[in-house]
Write a structure and sequence with these properties.
This protein is an alpha/beta fold. It is built from six helices and four strands. It has helices spanning 8-15, 19-26, 35-46, 51-62, 74-90, 96-107; strands spanning 3-6, 30-34, 67-70, 111-113.
């Protein structure tokens, strides 16, 4: 099964109707949304003027049969720790939430679709 993990900025691009993002997502059988992405999205909603509308759109997206919300597991914490150590050794730090997103993508064996170039610093992470 072809699995795609999406970053926060990809959900936002999808909501804006970005045709390249829609096309890319449609190529996968399963879309993983890390719980960290949900937190970032909901925090963003609270800073805007369309909280209820944004929340409703997210709820509808998450209800899609091809969308799966991935929580951090004990295994995720080990992957996260390894990524933190790897990035520190390389001298290439990235935001903490993005390390969690990468760890979940790796655990789910999913390609990660993002607009953030710093994910390329993570060895073994397949970017879509």
């Amino acid at each position: 099964m072809q699995t795609l993990c999406i970053d926060t900025n990809i959900y936002s691009a999808l909501r804006r109707g970005d045709k390249s993002v829609v096309k890319k997502i449609s190529q996968y059988e399963r879309v993983v949304v890390p719980v960290v992405v949900l937190g970032e999205l909901r925090a963003g909603f609270l800073g805007g003027s369309k909280i209820a509308e944004n929340q409703q759109n997210l709820t509808e997206f998450l209800a899609s049969e091809f969308v799966y919300v991935a929580k951090a597991s004990e295994a995720t914490t080990s992957i996260y720790a390894e990524l933190v150590a790897e990035l520190k050794r390389k001298g290439k730090p990235i935001p903490t939430n993005d390390i969690w997103i990468a760890a979940i993508a790796l655990e789910q064996r999913a390609r990660l679709l993002t607009l953030d170039a710093h994910f390329a610093n993570i060895d073994g992470l397949n970017l879509a």
